[in-house]
Protein backbone atom coordinates (compact mmCIF):
# COMPACT_ATOMS: atom_id res chain seq x y z
CA UNK A 1 0.00 0.00 0.00
CA UNK A 2 2.85 2.40 0.77
CA UNK A 3 5.90 3.35 -1.22
CA UNK A 4 8.79 0.93 -1.59
CA UNK A 5 12.44 2.00 -1.37
CA UNK A 6 12.90 2.28 -5.14
CA UNK A 7 9.84 4.48 -5.59
CA UNK A 8 10.88 6.72 -2.69
CA UNK A 9 14.37 7.09 -4.16
CA UNK A 10 12.95 8.14 -7.55
CA UNK A 11 10.82 10.75 -5.78
CA UNK A 12 13.84 12.07 -3.87
CA UNK A 13 15.83 12.43 -7.10
CA UNK A 14 12.95 14.31 -8.74
CA UNK A 15 12.61 16.75 -5.89
CA UNK A 16 16.34 17.21 -5.35
CA UNK A 17 17.50 17.62 -8.92
CA UNK A 18 17.57 21.43 -8.63
CA UNK A 19 19.06 21.55 -5.15
CA UNK A 20 22.46 20.80 -3.68
CA UNK A 21 23.17 17.68 -1.66
CA UNK A 22 23.35 19.84 1.46
CA UNK A 23 19.88 21.29 0.86
CA UNK A 24 17.57 18.52 -0.20
CA UNK A 25 14.17 19.82 -1.11
CA UNK A 26 11.32 18.28 0.87
CA UNK A 27 8.68 20.61 -0.54
CA UNK A 28 9.21 21.59 -4.18
CA UNK A 29 8.69 25.16 -5.45
CA UNK A 30 5.15 26.02 -6.43
CA UNK A 31 3.88 25.54 -9.97
CA UNK A 32 0.55 26.30 -11.61
CA UNK A 33 -1.89 23.64 -10.47
CA UNK A 34 -3.40 22.97 -13.91
CA UNK A 35 0.04 22.87 -15.53
CA UNK A 36 0.98 20.20 -12.98
CA UNK A 37 -2.24 18.32 -13.73
CA UNK A 38 -1.62 18.33 -17.48
CA UNK A 39 1.86 16.89 -17.00
CA UNK A 40 0.69 14.15 -14.63
CA UNK A 41 -2.61 13.11 -16.25
CA UNK A 42 -2.38 13.21 -20.04
CA UNK A 43 -4.37 10.11 -21.01
CA UNK A 44 -8.07 9.61 -21.60
CA UNK A 45 -8.65 6.76 -19.17
CA UNK A 46 -11.54 7.16 -16.71
CA UNK A 47 -9.02 7.66 -13.90
CA UNK A 48 -7.16 10.43 -15.77
CA UNK A 49 -10.42 12.19 -16.62
CA UNK A 50 -11.54 12.06 -12.99
CA UNK A 51 -8.19 13.40 -11.78
CA UNK A 52 -8.35 16.31 -14.23
CA UNK A 53 -11.86 17.15 -13.06
CA UNK A 54 -10.65 17.01 -9.48
CA UNK A 55 -7.73 19.33 -10.17
CA UNK A 56 -10.06 21.73 -12.02
CA UNK A 57 -12.24 21.88 -8.91
CA UNK A 58 -9.24 22.55 -6.65
CA UNK A 59 -8.07 25.26 -9.10
CA UNK A 60 -11.26 27.19 -8.34
CA UNK A 61 -9.81 27.74 -4.86
CA UNK A 62 -6.02 27.48 -5.24
CA UNK A 63 -3.77 28.66 -8.07
CA UNK A 64 -0.65 26.59 -7.40
CA UNK A 65 0.61 23.31 -5.96
CA UNK A 66 3.81 22.34 -4.15
CA UNK A 67 4.91 18.73 -4.52
CA UNK A 68 5.89 16.99 -1.28
CA UNK A 69 8.65 14.39 -1.07
CA UNK A 70 7.09 10.94 -0.86
CA UNK A 71 9.05 9.03 1.75
CA UNK A 72 6.17 7.84 3.97
CA UNK A 73 6.50 10.98 6.09
CA UNK A 74 4.56 12.97 3.49
CA UNK A 75 1.32 13.32 5.49
CA UNK A 76 3.26 14.66 8.48
CA UNK A 77 5.44 16.82 6.22
CA UNK A 78 2.54 18.36 4.28
CA UNK A 79 0.47 19.01 7.42
CA UNK A 80 3.31 20.55 9.41
CA UNK A 81 4.50 22.66 6.48
CA UNK A 82 1.01 24.10 6.01
CA UNK A 83 0.53 24.69 9.74
CA UNK A 84 3.83 26.55 10.07
CA UNK A 85 3.29 28.51 6.85
CA UNK A 86 0.16 30.11 8.27
CA UNK A 87 1.10 30.17 11.97
CA UNK A 88 0.54 33.52 13.67
CA UNK A 89 0.82 32.37 17.27
CA UNK A 90 1.99 29.46 19.38
CA UNK A 91 -0.85 26.94 19.96
CA UNK A 92 -1.97 26.70 23.58
CA UNK A 93 -0.82 23.08 23.90
CA UNK A 94 2.72 24.15 22.91
CA UNK A 95 2.68 26.84 25.60
CA UNK A 96 1.97 24.37 28.42
CA UNK A 97 4.70 24.14 31.05
CA UNK A 98 4.30 20.35 31.08
CA UNK A 99 4.79 20.03 27.31
CA UNK A 100 8.49 19.10 27.38
CA UNK A 101 7.89 16.76 30.35
CA UNK A 102 5.69 14.46 28.25
CA UNK A 103 8.40 11.84 27.56
CA UNK A 104 9.39 11.61 31.23
CA UNK A 105 5.77 11.49 32.42
CA UNK A 106 4.70 8.83 29.92
CA UNK A 107 7.78 6.64 30.36
CA UNK A 108 7.25 6.65 34.13
CA UNK A 109 3.76 5.19 33.58
CA UNK A 110 4.25 3.00 30.52
CA UNK A 111 7.43 0.94 30.45
CA UNK A 112 6.67 -0.32 26.95
CA UNK A 113 7.35 3.13 25.45
CA UNK A 114 11.07 2.37 25.75
CA UNK A 115 10.54 0.29 22.59
CA UNK A 116 9.72 3.46 20.67
CA UNK A 117 11.65 3.47 17.38
CA UNK A 118 13.54 6.67 16.66
CA UNK A 119 14.89 7.31 13.17
CA UNK A 120 15.32 3.64 12.30
CA UNK A 121 17.40 3.00 15.44
CA UNK A 122 16.39 0.38 17.98
CA UNK A 123 17.73 -0.66 21.35
CA UNK A 124 18.09 2.69 23.04
CA UNK A 125 17.94 2.86 26.80
CA UNK A 126 14.94 4.47 28.44
CA UNK A 127 16.87 7.57 29.48
CA UNK A 128 18.18 8.09 25.97
CA UNK A 129 14.69 7.87 24.48
CA UNK A 130 13.31 10.28 27.09
CA UNK A 131 16.04 12.86 26.48
CA UNK A 132 15.98 12.57 22.71
CA UNK A 133 12.22 12.98 22.40
CA UNK A 134 12.38 15.91 24.83
CA UNK A 135 14.90 17.57 22.49
CA UNK A 136 12.52 17.05 19.57
CA UNK A 137 9.61 18.61 21.47
CA UNK A 138 11.74 21.60 22.47
CA UNK A 139 12.78 22.00 18.81
CA UNK A 140 9.14 21.86 17.67
CA UNK A 141 8.15 24.61 20.11
CA UNK A 142 11.16 26.75 19.19
CA UNK A 143 10.58 26.52 15.42
CA UNK A 144 6.82 27.07 15.73
CA UNK A 145 7.39 30.13 17.94
CA UNK A 146 10.05 31.62 15.68
CA UNK A 147 8.04 31.20 12.48
CA UNK A 148 4.77 32.40 14.04
CA UNK A 149 6.46 35.65 15.09
CA UNK A 150 7.48 36.49 11.50
CA UNK A 151 4.97 39.07 10.23
CA UNK A 152 5.72 39.27 6.50
CA UNK A 153 4.25 36.41 4.41
CA UNK A 154 7.28 36.24 2.11
CA UNK A 155 9.72 36.11 5.04
CA UNK A 156 7.54 33.50 6.78
CA UNK A 157 7.54 31.33 3.65
CA UNK A 158 11.31 31.66 3.32
CA UNK A 159 11.74 30.52 6.94
CA UNK A 160 9.54 27.47 6.29
CA UNK A 161 11.44 26.62 3.11
CA UNK A 162 14.73 26.87 4.99
CA UNK A 163 13.50 24.60 7.79
CA UNK A 164 12.28 21.96 5.35
CA UNK A 165 15.70 21.88 3.66
CA UNK A 166 17.38 20.99 6.97
CA UNK A 167 16.99 17.23 6.99
CA UNK A 168 18.19 16.67 10.57
CA UNK A 169 15.77 19.20 12.07
CA UNK A 170 12.93 18.24 9.77
CA UNK A 171 12.96 14.55 10.71
CA UNK A 172 13.31 15.44 14.38
CA UNK A 173 10.05 17.41 14.10
CA UNK A 174 8.28 14.38 12.60
CA UNK A 175 9.39 12.25 15.55
CA UNK A 176 7.93 14.91 17.85
CA UNK A 177 4.61 14.77 15.98
CA UNK A 178 4.53 10.97 16.18
CA UNK A 179 5.09 11.12 19.93
CA UNK A 180 2.28 13.67 20.29
CA UNK A 181 0.05 11.28 18.37
CA UNK A 182 0.93 8.51 20.84
CA UNK A 183 0.18 10.80 23.78
CA UNK A 184 -3.20 11.73 22.27
CA UNK A 185 -3.99 8.05 21.64
CA UNK A 186 -3.21 7.19 25.28
CA UNK A 187 -5.47 10.02 26.50
CA UNK A 188 -8.34 8.89 24.25
CA UNK A 189 -7.93 5.24 25.23
CA UNK A 190 -7.96 6.07 28.94
CA UNK A 191 -10.92 8.43 28.55
CA UNK A 192 -12.92 5.68 26.85
CA UNK A 193 -11.99 3.13 29.52
CA UNK A 194 -13.08 5.60 32.21
CA UNK A 195 -16.47 6.18 30.60
CA UNK A 196 -15.74 9.62 29.18
CA UNK A 197 -16.99 10.66 25.78
CA UNK A 198 -14.49 10.17 22.94
CA UNK A 199 -14.71 10.95 19.21
CA UNK A 200 -15.94 8.17 16.92
CA UNK A 201 -12.57 7.79 15.19
CA UNK A 202 -11.08 6.70 18.53
CA UNK A 203 -13.32 3.63 18.53
CA UNK A 204 -12.21 2.86 14.96
CA UNK A 205 -8.56 3.38 15.88
CA UNK A 206 -8.70 0.81 18.67
CA UNK A 207 -11.10 -1.53 16.84
CA UNK A 208 -8.30 -2.67 14.52
CA UNK A 209 -6.72 -6.03 15.29
CA UNK A 210 -3.33 -4.37 15.01
CA UNK A 211 -4.05 -1.50 17.42
CA UNK A 212 -6.49 -2.61 20.11
CA UNK A 213 -4.54 -0.53 22.66
CA UNK A 214 -1.87 2.24 22.60
CA UNK A 215 0.97 -0.26 22.96
CA UNK A 216 -0.10 -2.11 19.81
CA UNK A 217 -0.66 1.20 18.03
CA UNK A 218 2.93 2.15 18.76
CA UNK A 219 4.41 -1.24 17.81
CA UNK A 220 2.40 -1.89 14.66
CA UNK A 221 1.75 1.59 13.31
CA UNK A 222 3.50 4.64 14.80
CA UNK A 223 6.92 2.94 14.84
CA UNK A 224 6.58 2.26 11.11
CA UNK A 225 5.53 5.75 9.99
CA UNK A 226 8.27 7.19 7.82
CA UNK A 227 10.08 3.86 7.56
CA UNK A 228 7.87 1.19 6.01
CA UNK A 229 4.47 2.90 6.04
CA UNK A 230 2.62 6.19 6.05
CA UNK A 231 -0.48 7.39 7.86
CA UNK A 232 -3.69 5.48 7.36
CA UNK A 233 -6.93 7.46 7.24
CA UNK A 234 -7.86 6.85 10.87
CA UNK A 235 -4.40 8.10 11.85
CA UNK A 236 -5.05 11.35 9.97
CA UNK A 237 -7.79 11.93 12.56
CA UNK A 238 -5.28 11.21 15.33
CA UNK A 239 -2.79 13.69 13.84
CA UNK A 240 -5.49 16.35 13.64
CA UNK A 241 -6.42 15.84 17.31
CA UNK A 242 -2.77 15.86 18.39
CA UNK A 243 -2.18 19.22 16.67
CA UNK A 244 -5.68 20.57 17.35
CA UNK A 245 -5.90 21.48 13.68
CA UNK A 246 -8.55 20.63 11.12
CA UNK A 247 -6.94 18.88 8.15
CA UNK A 248 -8.98 19.47 4.98
CA UNK A 249 -8.07 17.10 2.16
CA UNK A 250 -9.07 17.21 -1.50
CA UNK A 251 -9.22 13.49 -2.34
CA UNK A 252 -9.06 13.68 -6.12
CA UNK A 253 -9.96 10.07 -6.83
CA UNK A 254 -13.20 10.70 -4.93
CA UNK A 255 -14.24 13.57 -7.25
CA UNK A 256 -18.02 13.89 -7.71
CA UNK A 257 -18.69 12.03 -4.43
CA UNK A 258 -19.44 13.29 -0.92
CA UNK A 259 -15.90 12.34 0.08
CA UNK A 260 -14.14 14.59 -2.44
CA UNK A 261 -13.42 17.10 0.35
CA UNK A 262 -12.80 15.26 3.61
CA UNK A 263 -12.24 16.89 6.98
CA UNK A 264 -10.14 15.31 9.72
CA UNK A 265 -11.93 15.40 12.10
CA UNK A 266 -15.31 15.64 10.38
CA UNK A 267 -16.79 17.58 13.33
CA UNK A 268 -13.91 19.98 14.11
CA UNK A 269 -13.78 22.49 16.90
CA UNK A 270 -14.68 25.96 15.63
CA UNK A 271 -11.48 27.55 16.91
CA UNK A 272 -9.13 24.99 15.33
CA UNK A 273 -7.09 26.41 12.41
CA UNK A 274 -7.50 24.66 9.04
CA UNK A 275 -4.74 23.32 6.78
CA UNK A 276 -5.46 22.04 3.27
CA UNK A 277 -3.81 19.11 1.47
CA UNK A 278 -4.33 17.27 -1.83
CA UNK A 279 -4.14 13.52 -2.38
CA UNK A 280 -4.69 11.36 -5.44
CA UNK A 281 -4.74 8.07 -3.54
CA UNK A 282 -4.92 8.58 0.28
CA UNK A 283 -1.25 7.67 0.64
CA UNK A 284 0.70 10.60 -0.83
CA UNK A 285 -0.11 14.24 -0.06
CA UNK A 286 0.78 17.47 -1.81
CA UNK A 287 0.12 21.09 -0.84
CA UNK A 288 -2.21 23.55 -2.59
CA UNK A 289 -1.04 27.15 -2.23
CA UNK A 290 -1.86 30.69 -3.34
CA UNK A 291 -5.55 30.88 -2.58
CA UNK A 292 -7.45 32.54 -5.42
CA UNK A 293 -8.38 36.17 -4.77
CA UNK A 294 -12.13 35.68 -5.19
CA UNK A 295 -11.98 32.77 -2.73
CA UNK A 296 -10.27 34.97 -0.15
CA UNK A 297 -12.96 37.64 -0.56
TrEMBL record:
Pfam families: Peptidase_C101. Keywords: Cytoplasm. Residues 40-41, 69-71, 281-283 are annotated as: Linear diubiquitin binding. It is found in: Cytoplasm. GO terms for biological process: innate immune response; negative regulation of inflammatory response; protein linear deubiquitination; regulation of tumor necrosis factor-mediated signaling pathway. The keyword Lipid biosynthesis does not apply. The record marks 259 as: Linear diubiquitin binding. Its main location: cytoplasm. GO terms for molecular function: cysteine-type deubiquitinase activity. GO terms for cellular component: cytoplasm. InterPro entries: FAM105 (IPR023235), Otulin (IPR023237). The active site is at residues 71, 74, 284. PANTHER family: OTU DEUBIQUITINASE WITH LINEAR LINKAGE-SPECIFICITY A-RELATED, UBIQUITIN THIOESTERASE OTULIN. Belongs to the peptidase C65 family. Otulin subfamily. This is OTU deubiquitinase with linear linkage specificity. It comes from Bubo bubo (Eurasian eagle-owl).
